[in-house]
Amino acid sequence: MRTLLLVEDEKLIRKGIRSIVERSGVDIDEIIECSNGEAALEILKTREIDAMFTDIRMPKMDGITLVNEIQSLEHKPLIAAISGYDEFSYAVEMLRHGVKDYILKPVDRNKVTTILENFQNELAESENEYNQKKQAALQQLQYMLFYDDITLQELQTICYAVHPYIPVDNFVVFCISNTEENTAFTSPGRYYYVQGKNHLNMIIADDRYKLEVAQRLKGYYYGISRKYYSFMDIKQAFCEASEMRRTAFETCTHVIDATTFQKPDTEYEYAVKVMMQTANLICSNKLEEALNQLEIFAEGVKQRKYSIDDFQEQMEIIITTTMKVYKNTLKNKEDEVRELLDMFSFQTINDYMMVVSDWIRNFNELIGPDLDERKTGQKMEKAIAFIKENYATDLNMAVVSNYISMNYSLFSFTFKQYTGTNFVNYLKNIRVGEAKKLLTDTDMKVNEISRAVGYEYEKHFMKTFKSITGLTPSQYRNNLGQ
What is the pTM of this model? Predict the structure, then answer.
């Protein structure tokens, strides 16, 4: 539960209820106190409150009036009424107007805990239902963005379904490749990260927060659409941003903005023959010739002499042809080659070519029975040791790859092959593992443990911990006690 509002005019009773709530075992991020219904209503109008305990008799605005006023609000909290025996008839009346339960004075600890647990379960069910509907809507959005055979009516229907979850109208779209932490690119009411396909993901941002998103994307290569004024234009905005992203990839330019970009008026040269010759050279084991030819072609793409689409198509032919020719000798190493098909998962064509060049130069080793992984293994062990020593710091993949003197993209590729998981998940597991030890062996508070294992924000830590263990940190500690 994120927020609980306590509305009670008697300070001693209010503090007593707060103490019971804090010791109930139910995780609550924030408890807010009010002494009357008027102040409570102002809070409810300005922010979303998950649950509320309210007294009935209070100055300025009583509990009955407060509950009636809440019915007109867009977001209604789960409510429990606090009443004395002589006010019980009022509590029953409030139950008819959306109040879920009541608490009689003097307040019983078990009753409060039961209500909180019921509220927590109801909120979890509502959130689960909301997430399921949101996921279905975003899947429809993905379908709309990546398939051309869609009618105007379908487009309108999908936009209406998605808009409640991405409520922006004056917006721009950023197109990026896969990110390490997509949660960092969502800020409700400002901008929203949407998983795409073929490593073309997007951030839909309210135009007022365009600069804020750009600051968060510092170091990435991405494309930006022009400003649009209706969510019905989301498909056009995405297509525009994805074209800018592809241009950023091929020209090795950090940011390509559609508002200033001018497409060059040139005709691409025909290069398919060149790429087929490259495939033949690789399969003939003429690796240096193949690499020279491929680097010339990549340079031509950067200079916009050759089409990036042709380059991607022919790279797929080269890789799939190689996999077919050497199917028997590759054995269990097909995944190492198949990774190269995801060209736009790399930030730029330079990063991609660095890994491709390494693949070609080590081709004999890749298909040979005695692949020497000692040198790579030593670097990966050094990286793992560095992660285990520095997990509590502001650690990311760029820091680790620099530490072992390895290209960022090559490190990402090699680390996943060596450990069986990507860098982000590996770091998460290390941090959560250390957090478990601290929860088990110490009396440190959750926010202290969060900082101790490398999370600046407690909410981010709690979300990560629960995604891995299925429990919140407090639940994990309580289970140990039981």
Answer: 0.62
